[in-house]
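Appendix B: complex inputs.
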Amino acid sequence: MKGAFRQSMGWLHTWTGLLVGWVLFFMFLTGTAGYFDTEIDSWMQPERPIVQNAMTATAAVDAGRQYLESNAPNAARWFIAVPSHRFPELRLFWRMSPDADGKRGRTGRARLDPETAAPLNYRDTGGGQLLYSMHWRLHYMPVRAAEWIVGVCTMFMLIAIVTGVIIHKRIFRDFFTLRFAKGQRSWLDAHNVLSVLALPFHLMITYSGLIFIAYVYMTPVITASYGTAADAQDSFFNELLRRTDGASPSGVAADLMPLRPMVLEAERQWGEGRVRFVEIRHPGDRDASVRIGHEWASPVRRPPTLTFNGANGELLRASDGIYSTPLAVRDVLLGLHEGLFAGPVLRWLYFLSGVMGTAMIGAGMILWTVKRRAKKGDAFGFKLVERLNVGTLAGLPVAVAAYFWANRLIPVDVAGRVAWEGHTMFIVWGVMLAHAFIRPSARAWVEQLWLAAAAFGLIPVLNGLTTDKHLGVTLPAGVWELAGVDLTMFAFGAAFAFAAIVLGRRGKTLKSGACHPGESRGPGPQARSRLDATAHGALDSGIRRNDGPIEGREVVRPNDRP
Amino acid sequence: MTALNIIAAILCAFAGLGALAMAMARHARDVFGRTPERRTAWSLRIFGMVMLCAAYAFSVYAWGPKVGPVGWFGVLSAAALAVVTILAVKTPAGR
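Resulting structure:
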């Protein structure tokens, strides 16, 4: 009975994982990059000055208000994001009042220099934000459709995680076990180790990902109480998040009180440097309100706030950010998912866990092919999976690197350059997939890995040639946000080169072994097809520590199992 | 101080997980050439658990009571990855 249960769970694990594996790989890869979205943003706008001193909150509200009063005087909402270490500029947003026919008002945004308060204009770029938002909005499709695809895939991921834990026979005994050069065993070890070591992260990120967009997947829950009207979801969220007060202005004009005393009061309560934003609703109206938010300090996503009356400066309310237990549970899950509270070290740990998740999916996909090559190597389905693996597991990293290249190589004044940065990524991915289908797959692996190595490894060089924010400047100045991007790219290049060398060397050793002394020079068609098989053997056996002489018989045995 | 506490947390997690691995026959054999005795194995296990608790304490010191537990999980994953990598390189080929 137990055996049958485990077997059926194994079946479920294999097929749920395989079916959506490529989408999950895309989501994990872009989402992991998203933990450094702001750093990538800065890297992709090399015109940004290197800021040494952060602006104080009081100076920020003064400069922000001055800009907003002259540029968006009739807005329904102003938002001033106070500069911080991770976001050194003064960022402003505003939303105009709804139109007469009830459409939401237009929005605007501006960025000011934290030292001079002058408006800043940088090149248009998708930046880290586009890369990050792809992990749930995908690309080239309506957001709602993408959310459904992502939701189904995430559900499959959750099933794969739970069934994976069930079918792992020796989760504790094999906790630290990773054996190289054992073919299928090595890939299973790698898949297991990457899964188990970061299991809390995988479980958290998958489950919270589902909760994030649960209101889309489970609309009937909202419909049951709020009906099916077009604005039902809006009213649900307005009530849930207590956005109901001050929803509409009185229409009576009244001067907005100075913001500085309110910010000082917040700093008195929380400590200096703890104010993250100041939001003003209906500035210039008698019912204006000013909400001051605390910086990211805990996994609870909703910050503590102080709300002031904008017309007389009175403190109306202090909130600790916890409105109700269910909402707080959701906020913690979402906060854990986004990791916005994470400082530099914790951010790197998040990134590492994300990389492990991405690699876990990749190892699982390769394991599927390694397991079946001997028996089903010629089947159409097998070849399809194998080719999609090459084009995605190696090809998608190449495409992401191309996205960084596009940022530097597309001229700054080209119209629609943001769109073309995105197109570049998907065109390159398409080319990689096509390449994977055209070339023998063993060679496609090596070629694409080398391409990935070059594309990532040369990014610091490209940066040095095209900008003045290269490692020669950022390292001495200690600007780790920018230097870190270059160094990480280089590290990925080195890792891909290592993988390519291991695969290529293995293929080559086998090549010389494949040519029997009796054979004429140059591999004939038969030898060539055998060469493919041997290079597959190289992939199957993973990293070989012992590159000793390979006997001919090993050549014809691609699966080189113990 | 935060930085020192984080470093301490990582070192404790590494030592703790390393000790837990050395309490296991297979890994001990790969590193020391012989399996540990029962008493040694239990001492290693207890030491390992104490170190993991210490890593938790340092994480909470470093990041505070709300973020500390999150950081602890991250530290454990990173330290475990380091232990696994070292053991994988140490393992004699073909075993």
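Chain A has a mean pLDDT of 87.
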